[in-house]
């Protein structure tokens, strides 16, 4: 490792302590700034004072408003001096002080004079300062000079004007856009940096005009762009154009690809790399297109410059995620990077290798990594652990060496995040690779023997309780678990008790011994531990409690199918408003809420004919349920099954805003129209919605709840109820017309006229679809839930979904068609994948649990095929789900 | 300080730092709003310094990532130079800026690149920062041009380079630079 070259002798130390700014103080320097006011200016001294002021600002010191103003005015005096160096410091100082608008006026004339000076340096700097501190009004005055400056023959002046233009475009785009002709001319400049700045500005002026950008790219890619920086810009713009145009469908060629490829042979490394990166980031890039880019990146891997190696390995790492085969050629170079001095490079190299490695190289790789792990920081280790996890899932046969590796690093020192990453990985491997189960569980058991993190211990104990009893020899885990009861803190002890109980429930041969252990826990000094032990002893003891064996298992292993947030709100409501009745967990809604309350409640509710308006609701469906049950006409409809999200029936910003919420009951549907009157001069009365259900044959209207009055900006509801066949997901289309009588309102007094005029207002149509009959209810472990369902209820079929834009689009379409809850993040489709499996769960009307497994595949011509497997508590429901898909 | 503008496609520099061997500021310039307060800036400088402290960045510029930023850096004597960009930035562009800054400082300090010399010529260092990047946009990357722009302004007698004429100063400096490069 390198030794710092700083000499450590005393002599040097003394010197290092010395600083020209030692003991500097703001007050004193501000005093010193008075020299700026001297009639005979000492330029050198003034420069020094400014440097001190800048030093203070640079160290993070701040000036009060008064101090800043004072300094600013003093500094403006220095424009009298003809000393160039001092002038430069004045410019810097003005920029740092960022004066207010009324102060800017003071220096404007001086700066404008400098802008027209014969000294190039003055011109360039004055432009930058003025543009930095100016506002729009002043800009029109100096616009003429700026346009001239853009085409100035001095490159520094031109660059200063162009860069200022880039900044000003954000604040006053209309002015800067008038400069395009001059900017265009500057793009042709012979000076490298001017070309770069001009290109950046020109692109930003035109960025919203696709055609113009495309033209710009077309003309420049043919010509010669000299500056490497400008070339990099052009590459970025080119990729943007490629993204927007897509592949030529006839020839399969990508426009401008040749240009990118030619940039790989540019003499500047910066440009080569930019082009290589651009190629790897093309959407749906082919192997043929990738190859030349990979080749240059491979060369960079053996560069002597760390920056180059880093850039190359980072890009290859990204490529390896989508095209691992394309990167395998670089594996040898990559392996030598494992010992790179720069640990970022080494980590990137390792994780790339883990992605591209084949089955035979795994063992060798693991050996190299073991040495490597000891000398990198936790943050890098986590990256490596995650890479190893995915490698193991890719090559399940290699689980032995990978699992060993994970257990070894689990034993070493490390922080919580790192350990958690390892434990999570082992858990995932156990779940997905059956063979790895026994050894993995033992590794975890050993880990909790000496684990300082309560969270991890409890997680592992919980997992052990679910998986341990199903192994060939469950008894060997008991020792580890009972040790926790003896040695650990209360939280861990409590979860150890639960784990013991799970073993007792599933393994009959262990039951008597578990009982002995649990009885000992009755003397624990913690309430929770004792309570749990008592509870479990009673549950498991066959004779004493009437519960059946199945109930016990359900109680111990069943997952809570109610979202925790819902139960939390319900409990809070219950606690706020306690009643005699005990809290009933079945009253908690099971629907996952994706958005908070959408329905707007009017402040200061007017009498709306609803009897008692409900109190402010805490969750939308709670509110709906109370609202509906308070209406006598709907009270006998039974329990509300589902309420949809509001569907807008009017365009935004129309006279009346109306949306509808569909409430589904077993034998009825109720449409709740939320209406808002947005015209202050009107009062609407007797508002109803006339629903035409001619395209919804199974529905028949049974009741209407009109809205007596709808004043300005006070949302209120009117309802229409329909009857439908029981338990059937009847679908149909409904056309709506808002009917009301309108009264003019005098806005000054707020009084309405006496006579109303009947009027109608056409609303948009909406549909009741199958998804309205399925509740989004997630499950925590899909696999367990799936396996616990009767396989006889499974219905499988395949469907062709026709050509689709992408797999993502197809997956989303089916999810929204079914209206079910995606599980385990399977709704996210990795880009470029050709197939995808999506897991959904929900509750069908009639409280029937439904699980769906969707497998998608897409072929070259974008034809999507789908295999749909459904399991549910009721075979008819499985078939109904198929019907939904077949008819959708 | 000017507000930082996000230029989607234009290479952007978030900050340039020059710290001493204990991680204290010599001169810093932030072009981005990612670190709105002085405390945030100091915290960033501290973590950058600690993260890079033990690496060898004396012969070649080194590189690392921190908080979704790419940082290229180079050390000489008791001075640590850093240039920060977003994690999508072309690493080589950042390295070019760092090299430009480094070369310019070497020229301006006449090859005596250490903390003391830098503080004594802080005006030159600040002007140098001003000439490299403007509001995040790269102005110039060639060290000798940057130094040239800064040095023209030091004609004032008594200023640190006063004993020599500008052309002399630059010539010696260039010579030093070539020598150090050939080493």
UniProtKB/TrEMBL annotation, chain A:
InterPro entries: ARM-like (IPR011989), ARM-type_fold (IPR016024), Clathrin/coatomer_adapt-like_N (IPR002553), Clathrin_app_Ig-like_sf (IPR013041), Coatomer/calthrin_app_sub_C (IPR009028), Coatomer_g_Cpla (IPR032154), Coatomer_gsu (IPR017106), Coatomer_gsu_app_Ig-like_dom (IPR013040). The keyword RNA-binding does not apply. Residues 594-620 are annotated as: Disordered. Residues 771-885 form the Coatomer subunit gamma C-terminal domain. It is found in: Cytoplasm; Golgi apparatus membrane; Cytoplasmic vesicle, COPI-coated vesicle membrane. GO terms for biological process: endoplasmic reticulum to Golgi vesicle-mediated transport; intra-Golgi vesicle-mediated transport; intracellular protein transport; protein secretion. GO terms for cellular component: COPI vesicle coat; endoplasmic reticulum; endoplasmic reticulum-Golgi intermediate compartment; Golgi membrane. Residues 623-768 form the Coatomer gamma subunit appendage Ig-like subdomain domain. Its main location: cytoplasm. Residues 27-543 form the Clathrin/coatomer adaptor adaptin-like N-terminal domain. GO terms for molecular function: structural molecule activity. Belongs to the COPG family. This is Coatomer subunit gamma. It comes from Perilla frutescens var. hirtella.
Automatic annotation (TrEMBL), chain B:
GO terms for cellular component: COPI vesicle coat; Golgi membrane. It holds the Pfam family Clat_adaptor_s. Keywords: Cytoplasm, Cytoplasmic vesicle, ER-Golgi transport, Golgi apparatus, Membrane, Protein transport, Transport. It comes from the Eukaryota. It is a peripheral membrane protein. The keyword Cytoplasm applies. GO terms for biological process: intra-Golgi vesicle-mediated transport; intracellular protein transport; retrograde vesicle-mediated transport, Golgi to endoplasmic reticulum. Residues 12-152 form the AP complex mu/sigma subunit domain. InterPro entries: AP_mu_sigma_su (IPR022775), Coatomer_zeta (IPR039652), Longin-like_dom_sf (IPR011012). Gene3D superfamilies: 3.30.450.60. PANTHER family: COATOMER SUBUNIT ZETA-3 (PTHR11043:SF28), ZETA-COAT PROTEIN (PTHR11043). Belongs to the adaptor complexes small subunit family. Oligomeric complex that consists of at least the alpha, beta, beta', gamma, delta, epsilon and zeta subunits. The coatomer is a cytosolic protein complex that binds to dilysine motifs and reversibly associates with Golgi non-clathrin-coated vesicles, which further mediate biosynthetic protein transport from the ER, via the Golgi up to the trans Golgi network. Coatomer complex is required for budding from Golgi membranes, and is essential for the retrograde Golgi-to-ER transport of dilysine-tagged proteins. The zeta subunit may be involved in regulating the coat assembly and, hence, the rate of biosynthetic protein transport due to its association-dissociation properties with the coatomer complex. This is Coatomer subunit zeta. It comes from Perilla frutescens var. hirtella (Perilla citriodora).
